[in-house]
Amino acid sequence: MKLTVITGGDARHAGLISLTYINTLAYCKRHKFRLRLEIWPIGKDPPSWKKLSLLKNMLDDCEDFAWMLWVDSDTVIIDHTADVYREFVEPAENAGSYMACCMGTKALNAGVMALKNCYKSHDFLHRAMARKHCKKHKWWDQQAMIETMDDSPDFRSGVFYHELFPWNVQPKNYRKGTRLIHAAGNGNAKLRIIKKFVNQISK
After folding, report:
1. pLDDT at residue 202 above 70?
2. Where are the domains of the chain?
3. Domain spanning 3-202: which superfamily?
4. pLDDT tens digit string along 83-131?
5. Buried b (16+ CB within 10 A) or exposed e, 120-159
6. How far is the CA of 150 from the CAs of 36, 92, 143, 146, 160, in angstroms?
7. More exposed terminus of the chain, fewer Cβ within 10 Å: N or C?
8. What is the pLDDT, as a whole number, of residue 203?
9. 6 contacts 63 by C-beta, under 8 angstroms
């Protein structure tokens, strides 16, 4: 299996996941990617902190995938004809990178990211998990990854960066050619925005 797609969140995001999972499942069936849904109990840690251990555990389990792609639960795949492996993952593979992600306005955006099934990815996640002080930072797991890269040029140089367009696009920046909408932030309007795009695709 060349790609496993993972999405999920804690129980408080169940309503959101019920909308976005159907979309992601349809996309994965079309492209013959494996999809894994993870929902965990509400705990003391920020919801997205679980992402680090979840991805590390997948590597521990030695599953038969070459790459894994994480997509946050507030993402909607807009263009189901576009191949995320060919457009997002394969350039990183060809460059000898262990990670593919998008560069945001200030730092990497971990809402959509791919990790190769290799020791370097495992070591990176292990070191990021150890930065427990980042649980108090507004970027949580993302900040832990940024700090891990800051402390190791080898980790930073092994990342293949994409622009946010077309695979990690805020709803307000939607335009022709967008592959995936990522409704990060957006407060109380998030569920309404997600419903709008999901309904748009289903028509």
Report:
1. no
2. 3-202
3. Spore Coat Polysaccharide Biosynthesis Protein SpsA; Chain A (3.90.550.10)
4. 999 999 999 999 999 999 999 876 789 999 999 999 999 999 999 999 9
5. ebbbbbebbbebeebeeeebbbbbbbbbbbeeeeebeebb
6. 30, 20, 10, 6, 15
7. C
8. 62
9. no
